[in-house]
Amino acid sequence: MMYKAFFNGLTGAALLALAGAASADDLVLENAWLRAVPPVSPTMAGYFTLRNDGDRAVELKGARTDIAGGAMLHDTETTEDGQARMVHLSGITLEPGDQATFAPGGKHLMLMKVASIPEAGEEVKICLTFTDHDDLCSDFPVRREAP
Amino acid sequence: MLTVFRWWPVLAGLLLLAACAEPRQELPVNTRLGGDFTLTDHHGQPFRLADQEGRVVLMFFGYTHCPDICPATLARVSQVYRNLREAGDAEAVQPLFITFDPVRDTPAHLSEYVPWFKANVIGLTGSEAEIRAVAEQYGVVYLQSGDGAAAEYDFTHSDYVYLLDQQGRVRKLYPSDFNIDEVTDDVQSLL
Hints:
The complex is a heterodimer of chains A (147) and B (191). Chain A has 147 residues and is mainly beta. Chain A has one helix and eleven strands, in the order H-E-E-E-E-E-E-E-E-E-E-E.
């Protein structure tokens, strides 16, 4: 039994060590990636899931990364008549047990004024920022397709 | 008689297969949308849709400063093209990307953007009036939002992908998160 718990722990640690994943004591970031775009693009979109395993609410406010002049939380809303529009999210509150999913066609992290667009296969360090919580940083792999 | 009974499951299976293999329904022609147009391609040359006669066209409206839906949709259209190329059908298909952001999406900018998708995509731009006219022909609605003066603006926009047949007629519209196999099959049904 102890062996099993030990190996389960090892597996969990190994998974979190992979690119696109990170955890604090109470927050778990998984499936993080950036969509590869042409080098001439000034913007990139990032995706991830964030789970609050803690016992208090946290508010995701935004992100920071050295490659971009700014980062914002956006949502792509599709209206009833089929129009898509981007909406700026000032913050997302995660109650204990909540999970936020940032995925193509929906919520996404928008990196603006990207000085040099990274290529598919590279990794970019991005730190999610919170109200009353330490930043949560992870290497976001750049991919042409969703994982 | 016993022999017939022994073979009846096989016969039933064959009948079922025959039922499933019904010829696929022909895609209807959408008579409300579409029409010929002339814009400027990413080489700065005039592009007329009618010159694509004989080729199936996959057409999408967007803008290059859009970080989420537009590159994702172009990537999907490109995957359809690559599937068709592997099947030997690339010559019969032309992907088009029409911007509704002519101020930032100049031919020079598009010429650095569309080739990256490696799918023979032609980027199209024009004057605001020309693009507006084409959008209206195809029922595309778009609205600029944000600070145009600061070049920090987005668009609220329709995000359909259009399948045009060899005569330039609209045969089907897809949502931007379309199924790649479905579109590939639809294109091949027109070839």
